Records
---
Amino acid sequence: MKSVRPAAVAGTFYPAAPQMLRQAVRDYLAQSSTSSPKPPKAIIAPHAGFVYSGPIAASVYGLLQNAPDKIRKVILLGPSHRVPLLGLAASSAEYFSTPLGTIPLDRDNIEQLLALPQVTILDEAHAMEHSLEVQLPFLQTVLDDFSLTPLVVGDASPDEISEALETVWGGDETLIVISSDLSHYHDYQTAKIMDQATSDAIENLQAEKLRYDDACGRSPIKGLLTIAKRKGFKARTIDLRNSGDTAGDKNQVVGYGAYAFYEQ
């Protein structure tokens, strides 16, 4: 019997009914005006409930729509919200599931990663983690068949994360996805100032400028910025808003940014 990690946040973070979910993602993508003749090598996308961050996520996933058959492998990293852990947690599952279907895990990639001391199998870290799961319906909509290498990131250094990314970096067939929201629960104006500073740091590949409160996924972002700088990549802000701009009030907001990374 094949091992499947079932959807954990369908019906809360996004619609559980397949038809409703498919239509919601398509609507977000249709509202986005972004496109790119060549897909980015890496992206950063937010992971809140779709009603809050869906439009911002769609802005960067829209860049993948012109090349659905070119990307065959997705490396997906997001922060751990529920399970404390050291390093990066891989999954023993053969498939990840959403209401849109199942995605095969790239066991070859995962075996390569397990040779690194900072990567271990920890299914508990994946079981209820939403930061990875909310990216999957977008990927299932904009790409054709692809395999997934999901990693939940705990206490890990930028060098440890960039080493893991280097191991599975691949070529044009491989997309790197980092899942992260930005500032949390500040008033609207404070959040705008903080998130703009975070965006500036990301665009300039300055991992050292990201502080604890700037992004929940700061660790995987720092790892991506480290390897992107080493490889001479260019980062571009695609969208920058917060929950006060989408579906929330402006007294306490969560920031959302979408970013794309291209080879120079």
---
Amino acid sequence: MARNRMIRPEFWSDEKVGTLSFLQRLLFIGMWNFADDEGIIKGSPLFLKAMIFPYDNLEEKEIPEAIKSLLDEGCIFCYRQNGEQFIWIIKFRVHQRIDKPQKSNNPGPSIQNSDYHHAIFKRDNHVCHLCGKITEIGNDSNSKNFPSVDHLTPRSKGGDHYPSNLKTACSSCNKSRRNKDIGAFKEHSKNGLGMVGDEDKRKEVKEKVSKRERERESTTPQAVGPSVSDFEKFWSEYPKKVGKLDAQKAWKKNSSPGIDKILEAISQQRASPQWTKDGGKFIPNPATWINGGRWDDQPQKIIDEVEAWEQRQNSRE
């Protein structure tokens, strides 16, 4: 069932949203309308197309590609339960005000899934909801400030594993709280623990999180990829000019064998039957070609010649 949802003005100026294509943005917004009050929706491409694009003649592969882009950008979390695919919109409850939330009819992600934990941490900007401190971003699980998942309503009191009942908490706070009510825990805490409330404090925490993530990225070895000018050379030679932003993102994420080999592969493949058939109808989208490392594909002409040679050899025998 579709629901009324809110789109904040900041959505349109968000840099992450700006990297999405029109189709990806529209799919993302459409998911909000058909997601339940937990921000969970069935992830079947066929279902999403029927719900969000009932009058659009989209190719079958376009929805899965758009879902992957939203996943790569950290906008959604995908998981499987009972043999079905589901999607959780990670910051759904951050941007949507639900006055009387209804219980989800969709199964939630497994609490044993570590990727689900990281999605919770990302949603909460790695901030402990009990003490307001930024949790450590690292692998030291013995640290008192290591992030953990805390149930707002404890499991012993009927709490579930849905996203709305989960919050980021540093290990020390989570361990100290146990199954106490949050109010009682704060009241009796020796450290006067409390949630980050005022706007100045929120801004300070956000800046600290951004700084820490930048420092982490600066110390993480980055794969050396081709230059932007090489991408423009690729784009000028590739015969199908669609989804340039998607192609640029794929180009940055994938290491290539060098622009010379890529251009040579394009030159060979553009003369192949697959690419010339029906006016180029079967030429892969540029992003698909890059993500698949299609520069290593054997040209159909060579394949045909090898098969013909083998047939001649077999007939002689």
